[in-house]
């Protein structure tokens, strides 16, 4: 006879792994970790922002860049302006963003491509040039109100597929990217984060890629998907015990420029807190 704990475990396995298997979804271990994170997320209260307070979102990260040295300019010119692979050099450049929740909602799809090292608080969502920031969203991935999206995991994933259309390297890879983008904004409420985790558990090819992944000093489990089109592994890093979204990273599985195979060529971490004041202008922040 099954004990209470065994019965719960059996029901969880049927609910998550069975659905994922039916949909050709995530690896069972990854689906289980995502489901645990979803359950834990619902046990953690969202930050309460009182009158006169702000939800402060901080994003830290780095990205890889490839280029050539000025010293090789003549060599490149002599080769009709073309470089050879061994002439490429690479670097990792860091960035740091700080913004209030109100601006994060205005930015939506543009959040990940915002300028680095800037504190933003633009009253009413208007920029210095007088034009409204983020009022026109043309990208298919972030052009809807999260509150209008379904919370049922299968329905949510199907909606994400629909919103993405044919964009991205693959249908499933772009779906995971959509989920990552939604989590990375730092403003998704607990019940939506839980739905996103459960939707990710239904994506084919999603696996646990690293049991101990550390980003910016915080360690969690890496769950990701390999994209053969560019030989890159895309991961989200979460704490399955608390449901916290730590960040995301891209790992090249093929050496290029001066990056060896296995290099994390970009990563982002997100932290949120409630603060009593926000900047009143646009200014460069200390790093």
Give your account of this protein's structure.
This protein has helices at 4-22, 28-43, 73-78, 101-107, 153-164, 171-184, 190-200; strands spanning 54-67, 89-100, 118-120, 207-215, 218-227, 232-239, 244-252, 264-275, 283-284. The protein is of the alpha+beta class and 287 residues long. It has one domain (4-284). A nine-stranded mixed sheet has the order 4-5-6-7-8-1-2-3-9. A hairpin with a 4-residue loop joins strand 5 (218-227) and strand 6. The longest helix is centred in the first third of the chain and has 19 residues, at 4-22. The relative contact order is 0.19.
Pick out its properties.
287 residues, alpha+beta, nine-stranded mixed beta sheet, 30% helix, 28% strand, globular, disordered N terminus, disordered C terminus
Task: Characterize this entry briefly.
The protein has 7 helices and 9 strands, in the order ααβαβαβαααββββββ. It is α+β, with helices and mostly antiparallel strands and 287 residues long.
How are the SSEs placed, and which strands pair?
Layout: H1 4-22, H2 28-43, E1 54-67, H3 73-78, E2 89-100, H4 101-107, E3 118-120, H5 153-164, H6 171-184, H7 190-200, E4 207-215, E5 218-227, E6 232-239, E7 244-252, E8 264-275, E9 283-284
Parallel strand pairs: 2-3
Antiparallel strand pairs: 1-2, 1-8, 3-9, 4-5, 5-6, 6-7, 7-8
């Amino acid at each position: 006879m099954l004990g209470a704990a065994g019965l719960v475990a059996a029901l969880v396995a049927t609910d998550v792994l069975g659905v994922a298997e039916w949909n050709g979804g995530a690896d069972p271990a990854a689906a289980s970790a995502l489901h645990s994170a979803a359950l834990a997320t619902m046990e953690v209260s969202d930050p309460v922002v009182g009158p006169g307070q702000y939800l402060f979102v901080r994003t830290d990260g780095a990205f890889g860049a490839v280029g050539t040295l000025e010293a090789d300019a003549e060599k490149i010119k002599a080769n009709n302006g073309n470089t050879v692979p061994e002439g490429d050099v690479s670097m990792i450049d860091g960035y740091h963003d700080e913004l209030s929740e109100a601006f994060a909602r205005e930015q939506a799809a543009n959040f990940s491509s915002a300028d680095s090292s800037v504190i933003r608080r633009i009253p009413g969502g208007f920029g210095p040039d007088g034009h409204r920031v983020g009022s026109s969203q043309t990208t298919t991935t972030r052009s809807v109100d999260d509150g209008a999206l379904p919370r049922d995991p299968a329905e949510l994933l199907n909606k994400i597929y629909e919103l993405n259309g044919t964009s991205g390297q693959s249908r499933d890879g772009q779906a995971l990217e959509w989920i990552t983008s939604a989590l990375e904004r730092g403003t998704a409420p607990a019940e939506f984060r839980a739905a996103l985790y459960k939707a990710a558990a239904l994506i084919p090819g999603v696996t646990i890629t690293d049991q101990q992944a550390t980003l910016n000093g915080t360690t969690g489990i890496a769950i990701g998907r390999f994209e053969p089109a560019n030989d890159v592994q895309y991961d989200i890093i979460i704490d399955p015990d608390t449901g916290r979204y730590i960040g995301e990273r891209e790992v090249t599985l093929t050496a290029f420029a001066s990056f060896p195979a296995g290099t994390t060529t970009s990563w982002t971490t997100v932290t949120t807190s409630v603060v009593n004041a926000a900047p009143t202008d646009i200014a460069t922040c200390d790093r």
